[in-house]
Each structure stands twice: as C-alpha cells, then as structure tokens.
Automatic annotation (TrEMBL):
One Pfam family recorded for the sequence: NmrA
Domain NmrA-like: 3-244
UniProt protein name: NmrA-like domain-containing protein
Domain of life: Bacteria
Cross-referenced InterPro entries: NAD(P)-bd_dom_sf, NmrA-like
Amino acid sequence: MKNALVFGVCGEMGKHLCQALIEQNWEVMGVIKEGEIDAPLLGNLTLVELTCADLDFLYQLVEDVDTIFIHQPETDTNQRNNLIFPLEQIIQLAEFFNLQLIITTNKYDIKQTQLPSFAFWRQKKPIKIALPHKLHNRLYHASQTGVRVLVIGCGHTLGFTHRKCYLGMLVKETEHQLLLQSPSEKAMKHQWTYLPDLAKNLVHIVTHQQHEFNTFDTLYYSGHTASINDIARCLALSSGKPVIVTPLHWTIMEFIALFSPLFRVFLKARTLWQQGGMCPHNTFPRINNSEITHTPLELALQKCWEQRH
C-alpha cells in the first residue's frame, strides 16, 4: 500500500485528493493547521495538527511516506498560511527523504510580448502561460537530487467561494437573478477546472501509470473549455434564476486592488482574461488508453452551486 502526505486537507482540493487517494487504497496523512475544524473524516486518513514551529516533528512523521501532494490555488495571497510551512521547506523535506513531490497549481508566469503595449500594437492572440521560472528551476534542482517531481497545471477553478476562486468574485446573487461580471469578451473561451475531476484523474495516473513520467514533468490539465456565456447558461440551469452578464470594469478593479490583496492577485491575470491563454503542449496523459473523464460542465457547476448554499 502506498502512503501519501497531503497538505491543505481542509481546502477543497485537499479534501478531494484525500478521497481519491483512499479510493485507490492509499494510506493518507493529512496536515491541518492548529484549530482547523472542517477537515474530512475518512477511513485510512490520519490527521496531524501542526504549526509552523513543528517542522522537526513533521520530519519524524514522514519516514514511511512515498508521495507529498500540494495544491496552490490561484487566489492564495498568503502561501505560508495555506501550507503551514513555506514551499521551500516542503521541497527540502522531499529532498531529505527522497520522496515523490506532486504539485497542482494555476499560478503562472504570463509571457507577454516585449513590444510596446499601445492600443494599435497590442497583442490580440492568446498569450503563453508557464510555471514561474524560479519555481521551475528549484523543482528541477530537486529532481537532480533524487526527488521525482510532477507538476500539474490547471485552469480557473469552477467554484463560488469568494476567497478561493475567481468565479466566486464574478457572481453576485439577488433574490430574483444572478449578475455575472465578465472580465473578457463574453464568447472568449477559457480553461476551467472542476477540482473533483482533477483529483480523481491525477490519483489514477499516479497510482497506475507512474512509469510513464520522467523524474521532472510539468503537465497541463485542460479541464473544460468554456466562455463566460457558457458559464452563465449553466448557472441559470443550476440556480433556476435568469443570469445577466455585464462587463467587468477594470478601472474599478484597480481602485479596489489598492485596498485588497485578493484583487491585486486578480489584476495580474488581466491580460490572460482579455486575450486568452495558450496552454503548453505537454497536456495531461490519457488514462488506460481512453480520454480523461470529465464531469459535464452543467453538472459540475450545479454541484458547485449546491455547495455554495
């Protein structure tokens, strides 16, 4: 039986990872912050409550662990609080015990044109996204010391929790209708990720197709390709209310960002929203010679909407 250490098990992705790992017969140790009370209660899941001062104790706990799982959400403005320990310390932990390190993330460097950003010169085609250069180099160095590193990039999260996903920032609900603000052209397609699908597919390939990976791989999980109009249609079905789509005024966002770290993070993705992203070619592998399984967009949004209420 394989053994996993999962950080952030009280977060949505952490909970789904624990569930998917246990379904594939892994023993799972979940790290939670002191005082957290919404951790999942599952068989084969051992919860360990730690603080940032318990690093030495963490080293004592992972002697039988095979793999470390970490999720970095797009709107996480304080990574240390999210993971308890800084990512650098977690990488060092993997190096010390020669563990496999798996990171899911939608934190990217956006590679824009170097030409002037005048209106008549502005690049209109999708822009390239990539893992942050500094993180890529650090993980590559870790792979050279014996750590097997797998990074899975994903798109915007399909969810409505205001501080955990961008979609939650865009939807306003009234008694009779929903207001959906569009940061881009209403018909422009973006990549959206339903986290239960990502967790299930990731755990499946790590459990059954591990031999297909190199010592350091960065892959992209495509999820659902959908526009704001598609999201609005699904929201109308989920909520039973009409959905009105309005443009998002970035000048207002810039003003709010002066006082909100969350909105400052959102502004960094402005060009990605306005022009669309160009995904890397190294996409998520097939599972047992079949396509990746996806919950249909309508059902995924309905389940997310039910969780909101």
